[in-house]
Amino acid sequence: MVLVVVALAVLFRASSYDIYVANLAILAAVAALGLNLLTGYTGQVSVGNAAFLAIGAYTAVAVMARAGFILGVAAAALATAAAGFVVGFPSLRLRGLYLVLSTLALQFIVAFAFEKYQTQSGAIAGYTLGATALGPMHLDSDRAWYVLLVVVLAMATYVAWSLVRSKPGRAWIAIREHDVEAAVIGVDVTRYKLLAFVISSGFVGVAGALAAAYTKHVSYEAYTLDLAVAYVAMIIIGGLASIVGSIIGAAIVTVLPFLITNAANSWFAGAAAGSFVQRNLPFINASTYALLVLVFLMFEPRGLVGLPARVVSAARRARGASPGSAAKQGVI
Amino acid sequence: MAALPEALAGSLVLASLYALIGAGFVMVYRSSKVLNFAQGHLALLGAYLFYALSVLLHRDFLWTLAALGVVSVAIGAVLYLVFLSPLAGEGPIILIMITIIIGALIVAIVPMVWGTQPHTLASPLSQAGIHLPGGIVTSELDLVTIATAVVVIAGFWCLIRFTTSGIAMRAAAENPLLASYRGVNVALTAGVSWAFAVFAASVAGTAYGLRATLTPSITGLGFAAFPAVVVGGLDSLPGAMVGAVLLAVGQNLAATYLGGDWTDVTAYLVLLVVLLVRPHGLFGRKELVRV
Amino acid sequence: MVTAGAGLQVRELTVVYHHVATGVNGVSLTVGPGEMAAIVGPNGAGKTSTLRGIAGFLPRESGAVKSGEVRLDGRRVNGLPVARMARLGVAMVPERDKVFTELTVAENLRLAGRRLSKGEFRTSMEQVLAVFPLVEQHLERLAGYLSGGERQMVALASALMGRPRLLLVDELSQGLSPGVVASLADSLRQINAGGLTVLVVEQNPALAAELAERLYILDGGRLVAAGTAEELRHQGEIARTYLGVAIGGLGANGGRHGDDGRPLSVQAEESA
Lengths: 332, 291, 272
Description:
The structure holds three protein chains of three kinds. By secondary structure, chain A is mainly alpha-helical. Chain A has helices at residues 2-13, 16-41, 49-67, 69-93, 97-120, 142-165, 167-177, 179-184, 189-215, 225-238, 243-267, 276-299, 307-319, 323-331, and strands at residues 127-128, 132-134, 137-139, 217-218.
């Protein structure tokens, strides 16, 4: 309910620019949800998210022009899920840090492949997509996109929520906690690990395709390791293994750079042209962003979703602890 | 096929840089089981620090190197104690993220302090070609770089293998609680290994900076060194050296036969194959799965 | 061994995990200098928590001492970092992961004795190997390749290398064969006879009663009873519930006692 009200309020009150930022945040949230299923719930750390976004976007480019928007998104989901299936195989043998390295390899290899493809097909500047039509509706404004994306996010949230509350979710958590024991108690580790990869990358692929259609431009330079890292930051800041956390984290990490740039622009508006600040604005922004993420990581490594509970328990501890031990302390 | 020995000789300099950066990875990984994604960025920082210290010390090469050693050791210890030690015991994903963010901070801060324009490092080492038998061309700088890498890594290896501090570092890495029961200050040993890691990165960054102009975009060195370490085995210093040589040769061959743009991706294709076939690398210890 | 044992006083110790779950609640115990005491009790009684409360927790561990105090020779030491406790002379042999499996046995010992001077180290080594002669055969092996009993010996030997004043042993006999346990018990007695204060957690009440002057019985995180085996024997209910029949009259070995009325296991060790 609250979310619906917030979503509507944004729709009617916000400027077009704000809606643009909100749309980016929603796109990020869809992908972050997918990543959190894999990393947060199943415990498989991946920095391959940018690669999956790229696969989704390139599939969309290839399919949308011929078969339309819906089929383009569907094809992107399928292609990315298939890629996730393939990438999931090493995870059956590799644990922990080694999986990070294999997804790092994926990132470099996919980026290279798309760069090669792009340069050899003569599209050095990337691909441009036409206007998107959803049946009779023309998605020609940020506001129209906003409505669509809110619906998509709601659907994605519902799917993720149902998954983690049913058998796959329990199996994933068992795998995360200890995959050897999970196998002993009858969890089909192979099947559910691969399922996590498939579903997770499917989410990311949808986000990649939608982002391509929304921004109308796709090029390999956008899918950097930094982007993949930003997604990991989202789910950590929001909260690992938390649906709401994925959305909060995506919103924060997406909006933060805009806020920093705005703040920097207004604070340093008077700075002389060519001065230190003027020359280094991008670096000031980047370091502020990195510092803020660092602060989040250091002081809230369990994510923002756990914050209310921790505040309460800290307050209780400060007031003199639980009832049982109060008497004991009196004796001493 | 006279190309092979030449390619090999040319690869050794690159391999030395990889090995130095990789040695830092290994030290950090062994002591705190952290994959340090900032290692390449630390090399960048080290090269710029060399530049700054060189200006400060009137271009006296040896004094600059000594000062660089002191400063980078201090930076390593501070990085660990401020950013990583408070989070010891968190999951690997958090710790990796911290190192990534440290890298991002370095990349943002370096151009603010030193600008984006290229700098040249003052060096008494000549880059003039020295012709060796077999058609191999090298230079004073190349030879010193290779020798430095060998000496630094051999030093690390002896330290870990033979000294009680080295034993304490290995003990703290394997079982921090038991190490504490035996009186080891676990945070301190990890801090020391971070100090060594930053030192090795600084040396690598300087060695790189001495043969090219210095710009804020040389962090790729660190990401290229990753596969080298994995090929050798994440926890093995000799492995890092062998992996570095194999990788550098492989990259040179790829550049020769496939084209220059294939060098980075070759490294990662090799990484992927090694991960699938022999995840613990050529020299690494198989990690036991405890039920 | 050469160093005189310290006296240990624990007062109203409460250990909690994750701020809430209680490991032990208000446990007090005293071990005089050079004494050997044992903690017995069922699984989950809080035996390990008590030892951890004395030896300390790492900063990021979920456990912590919530209240109470630990005194070593009268000096209040709780809340100190684990490594600092170790340097004060508290040596712990944990229940699991008790040796560094990736180090050789010699390196395990070298690490433990690295604060000693060269001469002290040599003396320590000689004394430790005299107590655990088997360890000497394995010096160059990786500790990870040792059997459970050998690991326990190396763990005890490492703990002794640092010349502690208080030895804490979590589960001396668990998972080990009777022959090995007898030999370990013998070694522990020898160590204690040299003046070292020992506090051992032992699931086998018969063994605990043989080893220790005083027994502390824990259950549900609380101290249920304390005293010598003799005293506890007269508290029929407690003896039956916690010590099985071991002290209550029947021996641990199916109730068979030797001629002098002591459990057979004791005599087996002495003849071994």
